[in-house]
UniProtKB/TrEMBL annotation:
Keywords, comma-separated and alphabetical: Membrane, Pyridoxal phosphate, Transmembrane, Transmembrane helix
Gene Ontology CC entries for this record: mitochondrion
Organism: Adineta steineri
Gene3D superfamilies according to UniProt: Aspartate Aminotransferase, domain 1, Type I PLP-dependent aspartate aminotransferase-like (Major domain)
Family: Belongs to the class-III pyridoxal-phosphate-dependent aminotransferase family.
Protein name in UniProt: Uncharacterized protein
Length: 297
């Protein structure tokens, strides 16, 4: 692995510049490595063939070896220039160019708007949409179905399509600290690389986070349940409320969406209204109209 800092930040506008630098770096590394081999061959000739085959000791033969070395050095990594797919943009100020059997270059840069992962499209938008219609249920919503966006990467508050058009994300309810937050990514990577299991075992981070969360809550709320999604959290809240109060009925706002699991879908008239078959609201669910409907009436 070779790592270096470029003379200027590597951005999407300087992709060719980065590719050329990657190529020249591989060339320089190849020439440097092969120069040691060339020196070893030269010393072998002088120690073994110094009494016969003196043609191997001439300057002309050594010039020939140097010419072969430079030719191989410049031709070996030529695929970097021919095939741009070798180049992968990464965040955290890194640009990588894989080459050969795991050999690659890492170029550090300062553009936080670059993606850490390979964002190359495998299919056209039409092909992706066709496969989605085959394998992904239609009940899973697709925004702008008449002309859906192909989002290939996200950064901060923005999403980017395959043409690098930027969209301000005012809908996403998952990335609470912005998309691809470098600190969050780093901490997830570090933890996943060390240990990824459940809370049935002791781990310091389990109680460290729980303690931090409890400090933001009233003193009577000190115990923390960890969940993987808002749906799980809402389902757990219902279970806790029923266990504490002994009541079963639930008030739910009309047009609201609370989650995708069974106990929450039955509270979400937002989902009922989209179902093709009429769906009866369970008896224990009581729908409350939102204020705007009272105003309109």
């Amino acid at each position: 692995m070779v790592a270096f800092t470029p003379l200027r930040p590597v951005t999407k506008d300087s992709r060719l510049f980065c590719v050329i630098r990657a190529y020249l770096t591989v060339v320089a590394t190849t020439l440097l490595s092969s120069s040691f081999l060339l020196q070893a061959v030269s010393r072998l000739f002088y120690s073994v063939f110094h009494t016969y085959r003196r043609s191997l000791l001439t300057w002309n033969f050594h010039y020939f070896l140097i010419a072969v070395q430079w030719t191989v050095g410049f031709l070996t990594p030529i695929t970097i220039l021919i095939n741009y797919d070798h180049v992968i943009h990464r965040t955290d100020r890194i640009m990588a160019s894989p080459f050969g059997n795991g050999f690659h270059i890492e170029i550090t840069h300062n553009d936080n708007d670059e993606s850490e992962f390979d964002i190359k499209e495998l299919y056209t938008r039409e092909k992706t949409l066709q496969l989605r219609n085959i394998y992904i249920p239609n009940c899973i919503e697709l925004f702008y179905r008449h002309s859906p966006l192909t989002i290939v990467r996200c950064q901060g508050t923005y999403m980017y399509d395959q043409l690098e058009n930027r969209y301000l994300d005012c809908i996403n309810n998952v990335a609470h600290v912005g998309h691809c937050h470098s600190y969050v990514n780093k901490q997830i990577y570090r933890q996943m690389g060390a240990c990824a299991t459940n809370t049935r075992y002791l781990h310091d981070n389990t109680v460290i986070l729980a303690e931090k969360l409890s400090r933001t809550l009233p003193e009577s709320l000190q115990q923390i349940f960890y969940t993987n999604s808002a749906s799980e959290a809402n389902d757990l809240a219902i279970r806790l409320a029923r266990g504490f109060t002994g009541n079963y009925d639930i008030l739910a706002l009309d047009n609201a969406y609370h989650g995708h699991i069974s106990t929450l879908v039955e509270l979400s008239t937002y989902k009922f209204k989209k179902m093709k078959k009429p769906t009866k609201i369970p008896e224990h669910v009581h729908i409350v109209s939102i204020m705007i409907e009272f105003i309109n009436s």
